[in-house]
Amino acid sequence: MLELSDIQSSQEELEAYYAQLQAQHVTPAWIGGGISIEPQSEAVPYLWRWRDLRPQAMRAAELVGTQQAERRVLRLTNPKLPGIASNTLVANIQIVMPGEIARAHRHSAAALRLIIEGQGGYTVVNGERVPMYPGDLVLTPNWSWHDHANDTDAPMIWLDGLDTPLVRMLDAGFYEEYHQERQDFGATVNASQWHYPFSEMRAALQRLAAVSAGDT
After folding, report:
1. The pTM is what?
2. How confident is the model at residue 216 (pLDDT cuts 50, 70, 90)?
3. Helix %, strand %, coil % of the chain (to 5)
4. Looking at the domain assignment, is residue 55 inside a domain?
5. 161 CB neighbour count, 10 Å cutoff
6. Which of 63, 105, 182, 191 is 20 to 30 A from 71 in CA distance terms?
7. How many Å apart are CA 73 and CA 104, to the nearest integer?
């Protein structure tokens, strides 16, 4: 007959055994809590308001140049998670002023950029120049060369999202600087769709709304 075993060990025996395990950097899985029956994230809800963030981004542009900062970003930090917005994602506000560039590099983390303000500054992804306008979504696949530039007369501001915490947790983080400050245009490699202009997405949503209205 098969059944659960019941071994009545003394407390002294167990403590001696646990001490031996600890000395060998081994932990018995049956003590100290088991598997959680539901998620137990330390992250807490928090709202960052644009009316607070924009002045701080403009102030950063006054105090720190893109020569001093690899990326001039303000990192949105969850009150319970040091330096990150969630356990798997970071969210940054990045600003590039008229006439500025942000030098080319690449990294293991994948990134997205949701454009908030500005008309026609651009990012370059693997050699492809991508103009940026409010509402546009720009993807930067992992290990893709990318740099930014603003040849307009107004600030370019956007939201960065990266899966850096996840990559770091997996010990998979790599980083490399480009051999020059900016990429040459037209040398696109591993081409993929990484630009979703808001004008096109809005039109698509309006068409979808019209079809959905007809179904009702």
Report:
1. 0.86
2. low
3. 25, 25, 50
4. no
5. 20
6. 191
7. 15
